[in-house]
């Protein structure tokens, strides 16, 4: 067993030593070994800087699957004793991913990607084929520079929403990320991802209704929970209208109506006004 397993801080020191000589992957491996170790399942203060460094490396190397595994491990370590630490590392992770994507966007002249679905991204072979077919150098450079970061950011949003779903302790964070993801779809004109995001949120809501007896489950009769869900669905509706996805806009209206039906108390006049404004806008364009 490596010596750094005995003390987590030794793993962080070892990782920094690797980074000093430019070895990011070995540094990531060292930190992952500690995060997944059963020996260190009790949360300590040193866990948070280890996790932050781990996620920073995941972003730098675009290892979204390792970020997901690490976050689930960290959730198990800290959710009973320090849920705020989980919130902090998730927010830091997404901020890093967003900054990297913005940097790539700034370096690229391609503002709107023409790839229909990020889950079916081009392979090196298809990029080579496009080169043979006459795609200019700038287009290829833009595609290779920006698209991988947009894909990584999308995967990061989706993974974090799955991580935090149906957990009353991180409910506000869940909705903040959902709304960030809608803005991402709007900013990068990601219509396929927008539809998937809407489907995922509906699936999560269904899970809340089916598993309401769990200890950390969300109570949809709670006014604060109702307000957060409604706020997110209104962002969903507004985004669908802005992207001219009228079928998704209708579905968003149905989602909002379904939330109203779950409420034990009538919706406020403001809530109703916002809903009917959205319906009117959709019908007017349709």
TrEMBL record:
Pfam families: eIF3a_PCI_TPR-like. The keyword Metal-binding does not apply. It comes from Silurus meridionalis (Southern catfish). The keyword RNA-binding applies. It is found in: Cytoplasm. This is eIF3a PCI domain-containing protein. InterPro entries: EIF3A (IPR027512), eIF3a_PCI_TPR-like (IPR054711). One of its GO terms (cellular component) is multi-eIF complex. Residues 9-265 form the eIF3a PCI domain. Keywords: Cytoplasm, Initiation factor, Protein biosynthesis, RNA-binding. GO terms for molecular function: mRNA binding; translation initiation factor activity. Gene3D superfamilies: UVR domain. One of its GO terms (biological process) is formation of cytoplasmic translation initiation complex.
């Amino acid at each position: 067993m490596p010596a750094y397993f005995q003390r987590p801080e030794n793993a962080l020191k070892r990782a920094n030593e690797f980074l000093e000589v430019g070895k990011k992957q070995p540094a990531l491996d060292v930190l992952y070994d500690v995060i997944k170790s059963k020996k260190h399942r009790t949360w300590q203060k040193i866990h948070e800087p280890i996790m932050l460094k781990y996620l920073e490396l995941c972003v730098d190397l675009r290892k979204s699957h390792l970020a997901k595994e690490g976050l689930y491990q960290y959730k198990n370590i800290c959710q009973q004793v320090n849920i705020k630490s989980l919130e902090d590392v998730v927010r830091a992770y997404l901020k890093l991913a967003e900054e990297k994507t913005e940097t790539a966007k700034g370096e690229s002249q391609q503002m709107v990607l023409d790839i229909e679905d990020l889950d079916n991204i081009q392979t090196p072979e298809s990029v080579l084929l496009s080169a043979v077919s006459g795609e200019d150098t700038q287009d290829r450079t833009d595609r290779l520079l920006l698209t991988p970061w947009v894909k990584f950011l999308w995967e990061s949003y989706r993974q974090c929403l799955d991580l935090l779903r149906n957990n009353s302790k991180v409910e506000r964070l869940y909705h903040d990320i959902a709304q960030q993801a809608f803005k991402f779809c709007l900013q990068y004109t990601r219509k396929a991802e927008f539809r998937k995001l809407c489907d995922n949120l509906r699936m999560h809501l269904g899970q809340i209704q089916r598993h309401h007896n769990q200890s950390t489950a969300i109570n949809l009769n709670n006014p604060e929970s109702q307000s957060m869900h409604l706020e997110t669905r209104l962002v969903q509706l507004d985004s669908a209208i802005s992207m001219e996805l009228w079928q998704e806009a209708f579905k968003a209206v149905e989602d909002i109506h379904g939330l109203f039906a779950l409420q034990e108390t009538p919706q406020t006049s403001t809530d109703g006004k916002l809903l009917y404004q959205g319906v009117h806008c959709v019908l007017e364009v349709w």
